[in-house]
Amino acid sequence: MPQIFPRRANSLVSAMLWGGLVGGVALVIVAITLGSSAHTTGVNSTPEQPVPFSHGHHVGGLGIDCRYCHTSVEQSDFAGLPPTSTCMTCHSQLWTSAAMLAPVRQSLQHDKPIAWVRVHDLPDFTYFSHRAHVNNGVGCESCHGRVDRMPITTQQKPLTMQWCLACHRHPEPYLRPENRITALGYDPAGDGIPGHELREHYGIRKDNLTECVTCHR
Amino acid sequence: MSGRPVRRGMGGLLILLVSACDQGPMTNQPKYETFEPAPRWPHNQSARVPVAGTVARGEAIDPRVPETLPMPLTRELLERGQALFNIYCSPCHGRDGAGAGMIVQRGFPAPPTLHSDRLRQASLRHFYDVISHGYGVMYAYADRVARSDRWAIAAYIEALQLSQYARVDDLTAEQRARLEGGSSGQAGEGAQQ
After folding, report:
1. What is the pLDDT of residues B116-160, one digit of tens each?
2. Does residue B101 lie in a domain region?
3. Which residues, 6+ apart, have CB-to-CB distance to B154 below 8 Å?
4. What CATH number is given to the structural domain containing B79?
5. Section B10-16 average pLDDT
6. Is B182 a domain residue?
7. Cβ contact, residue pair A124, B143, below 8 Å
8. Mean pLDDT lowest for which of A204-213, B19-28, B116-125?
């Protein structure tokens, strides 16, 4: 009976099987590494803004509360971006001829909003509410990092599903009392209020925090 | 030879290819997120400016402003007022209301102290109006502070004024014991009667 396959087919099949296995594992490793890399998640991305606004100066240096500008954070899903008149509340008197602030003055003069570039952008298939977080013990810093040390606003956290779920599964170590929500450099663990007490205080139910529909609706 | 395994293999390959697809259309769906640009609308803005006279949801339709506090004076109201005063007013007026806040220290014209005779005589409605419409170089805060919150701030200002003229006799026995015990007290902090 004539042989269909030549003798070298044996080693070829073996090479293909092993190659496929090793290649598959390598592909998974590469995919995971790429998926969680700063390039994909946007960590450290610092988009150029029309005005080089420094949270470091306004928050860290002057001690202005986040809510002075982001006024709707407690009532709305969106934290709110200040209208130009908020900037001009102080800058109608201070740094009135600074070249850096020319776009702000022009915005007021022509009634044309400043087109800030978004730094923290979740995919459209995720639903996120600021109101739901800041009224339930999650501080600004948990997602936005130390803005009081940022000369230009940078994304510090990966904002991946895995990252969100870490807190949704175990919120206790991240919770703060009501009067420390906008505090920066606050250490929930070092504050002395046990996380489970805060969770009970806010009435947070862990069972529905990891439902799909909590974030995808 | 049967075509079945080949077809199955093709199917598997297709699944792999689809899962490798760019997720762009899902990530950026054809809908406007808050403040997302909308080409060809005025200023390329999807967010619209409400027409004049728009009443926010939950706000009173009656434009007339009550002469004095329209809600009961409670500890919660004062605490809300304190939080808001510290957010919106303290940058210039200072947390104590004396008018030496951080922005003033950086060169902003100093506001008058809230503890002058004139302002101690002023009505709550006066503070409500100043918050709503601004005063001198102070901008209006009507777009930032809701009406009920303006009343809360006005009530807190009165408590703040009272705190600067508090007498030992005004304290409860317990507070007085704490004061005289020398523990670094929070006597002035709540400033309630």
Report:
1. 999 999 999 999 999 999 999 999 999 999 999 999 999 999 999
2. yes
3. B69, B81, B124, B125, B127, B128, B131
4. 1.10.760.10
5. 61
6. no
7. no
8. B19-28
Q: How many domains does chain B have?
A: 1
Q: Do the Cβ atoms of A136 and A160 come closer than 8 Å? A: no
Does residue B149 fall inside a structural domain? yes
Residue B99's domain comprises 75-167
Chain B residues close to A71, C-beta within 8 Å = 144-145
Give the closest of B33, B45, B144 to A113, CB-based.
Answer: B45
Each residue of B30-39: pLDDT tens digit?
889 888 889 8
- Residues of chain A in contact with residue B44, where contact means CB-CB under 8 angstroms, are 115
Other CB atoms within a 10 A radius of the CB of residue A66 amount to 24
The DSSP string of B88-115 is IIHHHH-TTSSS--HHHHTTPPPPPPTT
Q: Is B91 domain-assigned? A: yes
Residue B16: pLDDT band with limits 50, 70, 90: low
Environment class of residue B144 by beta-carbon count within 10 Å: exposed (0-12), middle (13-18) or buried (19+)? buried
Please say if the pLDDT value at position B5 is more than 70. Answer: no
DSSP E strand stretches across B8-148: none
pLDDT score of B13: 62
Cβ distance of B87 and A78 shorter than 8 Å: no
Q: Could A62 and B34 be called an inter-chain contact, meaning their C-beta atoms sit closer than 8 Å?
A: no
- Beta bridge partners of residue B45, listed in sequence order: B37
Output the CA angle A182-A185-A189, nearest 5 degrees: 95
